[in-house]
Amino acid sequence: MNLRKYRTYSTGKPEWDHAIFHLLEAAGLPAQREYFEILARVITLGHQGASAFDARLVNFMLADLCRAIAVFHPYRGIRKIAIFGSARLSPDSPVGQAARKFASMMAESGFMVLTGGGSGIMEAAQAGAGREKSFGLNILLPFEQRPNEVIEGDPKLIHFRYFFLRKLFFLKESHAIALFPGGFGTMDEGFEALTLMQTGKAAIEPLVFVDCPGGIFWKNFERYLRENLLAHDLISESDFSLFRFTESLEEARDEVLRFYDNFHSYRFLGARLIIRIRRPIPEEVLEEWNAQFRDILTRGRFELRKGPLPGEGQESELAHLYRLCFSFNRSSYGRLRQLIDRINEY
C-alpha cells in the first residue's frame, strides 16, 4: 500500500493512516486525497483535546456543507442570481413589485434565483421566479422565522445553522448578485461580496444595486462610498467597476447578461490567469491592451490561444473556448473587471 501521496495530510500514526486508507478503499474512494485529509483532520482533532462543544461545532458545520452541496449538485450547470433585500418591506410595496418583476425577467433569461427564503423582498423575488426556479437559503434563528410560502416545503429550501456558511453558498453558487433596498442583512451580504471580489477571494461576477425609479436609497449609499471611503483613499476609483447602480430593471438584467456575452469564466494556473472566452480577440486589440492594462501585468504580455492549457484539465464543455492568458498581479480586481468589460465588446 502506497500512502506517500497522503504524507502531507498524515495523522502522524501510520496505523491510523492505513486504517483511513482501507476505509476509503472499501467506500470506493481510495484515490481521493481530500477525503483522506478530512478524516485525518477529524481524528487529529479528537486527539488534540477538542471539547465536546468543538466537536459538535465541526459536526454541525460539516452537516450544513454536505446538505447544501447535495441540494445544489443537480443544478450545477445552470446559472443563478442571488437577490437580496429587506424582509420588512411588503412584497406588494414598490420595491417588492420591482424585485418580483426583476426575478421573473432573470428566470426568463435562463437564471435560477437564490434568496434567503424569508418574507418581504425575498418572497417577492421567489414569486417572480417561480418555485421551480427558486432556491431558499434560510437561516435558523432563536425566534420563529418561517420560510415564505413560495419555497416552503421545496427540496431546494436549505436551513443553515450558521450565517457564514449561508453566505458562502450565496457566493459559491451565484453567477450574479442583485441588491434591492434593505437593512443590516442586505448591507452585510453586499459588503461581503464586494470585499471578497476586491481581494480575489471570490470570483468576479456582476453585482448590481437596484432601486425603484426615483428612489434615493442606493444614491445615498453611492454618495457615502465616494465622500467617506474614496475621498479618504480607503478604496480605489477602479473598485467602482465591481458594481453598478441603476433604477432600471432592464439595465440591471442587461448588466448581468452582458457580463457573460463573450466572457465565460477564469481560473489561475500557476502564476498565470486564464480567462476563458467564447470569441477570439483581434490581434491589434491585444496590442492595445498590452499598453492600456500594463499595470495589472507582473511580466510578459496578453496571449490568446484556443483550447485548454496543459494542467488546466480536460473538461469537455470548456474545450472549445479560447483562453486569454497573462500574469496577473492578483491585486487590481477592479481593473480586472474593466478588462472583462472590454472582452465583452468583442
From TrEMBL:
It catalyses: AMP + H2O = D-ribose 5-phosphate + adenine. GO terms for molecular function: AMP nucleosidase activity. InterPro entries: LOG_fam, LOG_family_nucleotidases. GO terms for cellular component: cytosol. Pfam families: Lysine_decarbox. Its EC number is 3.2.2.4. PANTHER family: CYTOKININ RIBOSIDE 5'-MONOPHOSPHATE PHOSPHORIBOHYDROLASE. This is AMP nucleosidase. It comes from Candidatus Methylacidithermus pantelleriae.
